[in-house]
Design a protein that fits this description.
Elements: H1 20-28, H2 31-45, H3 51-76, H4 84-109
Length: 111
């Protein structure tokens, strides 16, 4: 009997590897979220009366998010690299930037 060829034999072998720097950028893209929770914790402990400390934590988180975004995009553009992890790091960094910028805008507006 003759066997039928399976339709899922569309394999492509490649030399692509995971980028170590891209993976590190993805892991470090969670730091601004942790800093957000730390800022909320400080605000809770001081009953909302810690604007200088929360501002410093926020600025550090925004800078860190920009750095991880830059590294993630740089790693995603490289050849022979699996792009899922650096792209996920870039998406996480953009979400954290949007969140922190929203916090600052709401602070300036006074809501």
């Amino acid at each position: 009997m003759r066997r039928r060829a399976r339709a899922d034999k569309n394999y492509k072998f490649t030399e692509k590897r995971h980028s170590g720097v891209g993976t590190m950028a993805f892991v470090l893209s969670f730091v601004p979220m942790l800093l957000f929770f730390y800022a909320v914790y400080i605000s809770f402990l001081r009953e909302g009366q810690a604007p200088e400390k929360i501002g410093c934590v926020g600025i550090g988180a925004v800078v860190f998010a920009f750095l991880t975004l830059y590294v993630s995009v740089r790693e995603a553009r490289k050849e022979n690299v699996i792009k899922r992890v650096p792209v996920a790091g870039a998406v996480m960094s953009v979400m954290m930037l949007a969140g922190w910028i929203t916090v600052y805008v709401l602070g300036w507006v006074g809501l």
